Amino acid sequence: MKKKLFILFGVVLIFSGLFFLFGSRVLGVFFPKKEYVLTRSESSVHRFRDSSTRLDAIRVKVFYAVPRNRTGDIPNDWKTPIEEALRRAVSFHSLQFRGKSSLAFDVYPKPVILDEESHFYNTDITARGNPHALISVAEELDRRVFQPDGDLYDAGFSAFKKGEYPVFGIIYEGVGASGGIIQDSPKQSAGEVARELKLPEFLIFKVHVPSANGFFILSRDFLTDAEYHVNSATLLYHEFSHTMAIPDGYDLDTGASYTADIMGDGRRKPLLRTYLSRDILSGMGLVE
């Protein structure tokens, strides 16, 4: 049986990290053996350095996910700041990709009260963008919302159109800022995946999210706290970018930026004052 490979590209904060994870669902897409070889396509926008995965149309199913012990923290107007950030992200995406890749968001109409309390999702470690919450919350959402026997199943909401690149976006009542792609791997163990990618085995995890090929998590605080008012939408798009396989543009240990665009120093700026670099766009098939 092929295994599911999840690559988590990083987070907004200086506690960022690079994680490689795999899980158990079977699809027809394999981890590209030339992942780090630049490929270009005149005909379509594709995932970064992966011309086999087209991004002509991206649809993100967005959820405001709240652990059951955090329901008292739900703002009265929780939806407005989320939708405003998403609208700005759509405009930014259209501008950067010159209309050759469409981005659409569907926001689940009410907060999803999660089955467990915060500690279950966060575990004892929330650094590096809280990837444990990203995985566990996404798995629960997939089970409850996207599977016919789920208690929140909605056939209309859970559907993706043919040809759309499916993504989960999780606005989380808690710590979170990370994202990545999900792909199949023919490998049978974490050790095999680690050796193929030349990474430590402790960076390999299992995930089971059958309904998405990418997902990200962002704390609700980033969209509502005054401290992040200037760059709230920027942070959201930064994390979303990881679902297209775009890596961070800053040092994962120190937080020091080595690119000026939204993946590096630009993540601190308003969305209208940042951009995706030419190298990234070229690596996604957008050539001049």
From TrEMBL:
Protein name: Uncharacterized protein
Source species: Candidatus Sungbacteria bacterium RIFCSPHIGHO2_01_FULL_47_32
